[in-house]
Each structure stands twice: as C-alpha cells, then as structure tokens.
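Before a colleague's protein record goes any further, I have to sign it off. My question to you is simply how this chain folds and whether the tokens agree. I do not need a full report, just your reasoning and any doubts. This is what I was given:
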Amino acid sequence: MRLETWWLFCAVVFVLSATPGPNMLHVLTRSVAVGVRRGTAAMAGCGAAVLTALIASAAGLAAVLTAFPLLFEVIRYAGAAYLAWLGVRAWMERGAAPDETAEGGGSGRVSLAALFRGGYLVGITNPKLLLFAAAFLPQFIDPARPQGRQFVILIATFGVIEMFWYGVYGLGGQTLARWLKGQKVRTLFNRLTGTLFFGFGLMLVRARLD
C-alpha cells in the first residue's frame, strides 16, 4: 500500500466516522448519563464491535452473509429490535439518568461491564457494517503486495479514527449534561434520543441485502 493511498483512506474514514449513527448516539447518551470517564467503557464496547466487524469482513464473513440471506435477516431484525429497546428505555426514563437505574441486575450504578456490553451490542448487531467493510477495505488494498499486513494497517487505522470520534462525542455528552440538570429538560432529551434510536432501528429494518 502506498503512503498516498493510506492518507486517502484516513481522510475518507475520518469523514465517515464523524457522521452521526447508532454508535455515536449511544456514546453521546452514555456520556450524558454516566460521565465521559465511565462512558469510555461504552466507547470501548462500540469500538470492539467495529473492529470485530472489520476483522470478520476481512476473514470472509461478509461473503457468508451474502450467501445466506436468512442469517443476514436474523441479525438485521435482532439489531433493529435492540435499537428499538434502547428507544423504549430512553422514553421510560422520564428525567432519571440511566446510571441511577438498575441495569444488568443490581440497583446501583451501571457497571463498566454493562456499559461495555451495551456498546458492543449496538455495534455488532448491524450486519450492514460487515458488508460495508467488505466493499470498502479492498479498494485500498494493493494486490501486488502482501494483503494480510495491509488489512491489519487499515483495520487499525479505522479503529483509531473511530475511537477519536467516540472521544469527541463523549466530551460533547459531558458538556451537554451540564445543561440537562432539570427533570423536564432531561426527559425531553431522553425522548429525543429515544426517537432517534427508533429511527435507526427502522432504517435497519428497511435495509436490504443488495
């Protein structure tokens, strides 16, 4: 892979990763609820899901989804259902920060493991990410050079840029939390984010294996 190709990849991924989506919304809402320091567990979960999808695509899992449309449909509907559940939970919070509610058992603060698991589930239940990676990464691979090393470089680069934007959204959530002290304002915010999660779930349902 030429250096110019890598820089082009960085520029494209930088713009793509900045685009708001389920992962970024999840990072933002977790940072509002639990603060950016503890929200890093959710960021790590989302980032791990993205890396899992990229590695799986490089290993050929995307081809499996294409060959078995039923498997794609199962994952797609599971992802949509999970996003819808996040939307319902946000609507039901009514001004209470999620960190003050029971999650994953227990009645105290949300555990770091639960935050990581939630972020991972948001990212990994989007089968379109696998297909996107399968179509996107090979465009920057030089077939005349060892492909394994190039995939490692591209996946690592993607992960670093993605985590950078998680940090940006996380810090934004921490700043936003200062304006959401009142119960009415927080309830409005919860319902807005809940609606967005519903919207992302609907988009995933309408997705097709093209």
In short: Residues 96-108 have pLDDT under 50 and may be disordered. The chain has nine helices and no strands.
